[in-house]
Write a structure and sequence with these properties.
CATH architecture of chain B: Roll
Distance between the termini of chain A: 81 Å
Shape of chain A: elongated
Largest sheet of chain B: 3 strands, mixed
Structural class of chain A: alpha/beta
CATH architecture of chain A: Roll
Structural class of chain B: alpha/beta
Strand content of chain A: 15-25%
Helix content of chain B: 25-40%
CATH class of chain A: Alpha Beta
Strand order of the largest sheet of chain A: 1-2-3-4
Order of helices and strands of chain A: HEHEEHHEEHEEH
Helix content of chain A: 25-40%
Shape of chain B: elongated
Distance between the termini of chain B: 45 Å
Number of domains of chain A: 1
CATH topology of chain A: CBS-domain
CATH class of chain B: Alpha Beta
Number of strands of chain A: 7
Mean pLDDT of chain A: 88
Oligomer: heterodimer
Number of helices of chain B: 7
Strand content of chain B: 15-25%
Number of strands of chain B: 6
CATH superfamily of chain A: CBS-domain
Strand order of the largest sheet of chain B: 1-2-3
Mean pLDDT of chain B: 86
Number of domains of chain B: 1
Radius of gyration of chain A: 25 Å
CATH superfamily of chain B: CBS-domain
Order of helices and strands of chain B: HEHEEHEHEEHHH
Largest interface: A-B, 48 and 50 residues
Chain lengths: ~160, ~160
């Protein structure tokens, strides 16, 4: 019987393949597509934003919305986002019984636990939430959960418009 | 070669957009009733039309907010008294890029789509443009995880 020296598999590099050798970098057809997927969401205009507390009265919140020319307010308690209050909430939950409820806290009619996007996401993520999931306004948080800004349809269209100039 | 977003937006028209069924109301309709119809249709905008369905103006949820805050909600007046006098019309062959520019310049959210005779056939706007982007470029916009909310801490041990 002939003894052959055992070869350790790691010594044999003949069938080794670099796992990155077949990596295909994403191909974008234009600068807008690249930006949509590779930029950070904060490249869009995400500020200024307006915040209120859950105990703010409904009518006061509506005045702030009108005065600040925004369609969405972020409701913040102890530095944390607990909801949003939007023009659509006014239409759906307030308009019909405005006189009866206008002095009650906004927490009764706000949208609880809104979908959010983190500030390391791409603009495509926010567009996805708006267009596919149907959330008109998407708060942007950092990884510690602090509010960085908000995007809505107006800012999304303004972002798109930059690429059409 | 496959064309990019910019090319599509410049060369495609409103006909390619998600044009929604408009909510049409007559000028004498009380605001309260218009708001109820908007709520039911889940639309932020109603188009005020004459007897031949040509647009006279529009009423948006923004104006409803303004009306409630500034006058305490006089919702029984006719919508024509508080509507925008301009319905911001476009036609089916308006390029999407023009629509995007119009909305930016005029700071408006909703556009009224009219046919060759000037009759209202649809409603579009910011939301339509975003849905257009999502539909045309699913690879980029649709392939996103819905809720990136699970923190590493919660994931451990799962």
């Amino acid at each position: 019987m002939v003894l052959r020296p055992q070869r350790h598999p790691a010594d044999d590099t003949s069938d080794f393949e670099d796992p990155l050798s077949r990596y295909e970098a994403p191909v974008y057809n234009d600068e807008f597509e690249r930006a949509l997927c590779e930029d950070r969401i904060t490249e869009m205009k995400v500020t200024p934003f307006s915040t209120i507390s859950p105990s703010t009265s409904i009518v006061e919140a509506m005045s702030i919305m009108l005065g600040n020319d925004v369609a969405c307010l972020m409701v913040v308690e102890n530095d944390h986002l607990v909801g949003i209050f939007t023009e659509r909430d006014v239409l759906n939950k307030v308009a019909e019984r405005f006189d009866q409820i206008k002095h009650l806290p906004v927490s009764l009619v706000m949208t609880h636990e809104p979908a959010v996007v983190y500030d390391n996401s791409a603009p495509a993520m926010a567009l996805n939430l708006m267009a596919v999931a149907g959330f008109r306004h998407v708060p942007i948080l950092n990884m510690s959960g602090q509010i960085v800004g908000i995007v809505g349809p107006r800012r999304a269209v303004a972002y798109l418009r930059k690429f059409l100039m | 070669m496959e064309q990019g977003v910019r090319y599509h937006i410049t060369h495609e028209t409103v006909a390619e957009l998600a044009v929604r069924k408009p909510l049409l109301v007559r000028p004498e309709t009380p605001v309260r009733q218009v708001a109820a119809q908007m709520r039911e249709a889940q639309l932020g905008c109603a188009i005020v039309v004459d007897a031949t369905e040509r647009p006279l103006g529009k009423f948006t949820q923004r104006q409803l907010l303004k009306l409630l805050v500034e006058s305490g909600g006089k919702l029984d007046q006719p919508v024509s008294a508080v509507m925008y006098q301009n319905a911001d019309t476009v036609s089916m062959d308006t390029p999407v890029a023009d629509l995007v520019r119009m909305m930016g310049q005029r700071q408006i959210r909703y556009l009224t789509v009219v046919d060759q005779e000037g009759k209202v056939v649809g409603l579009t706007g910011q939301k339509g443009v975003m849905e257009y982007l999502a539909d045309h470029f699913p690879r980029h916009v649709k392939v996103q995880r819905m809720k990136p909310l699970i923190s590493m801490e919660e994931r451990e041990g799962a």
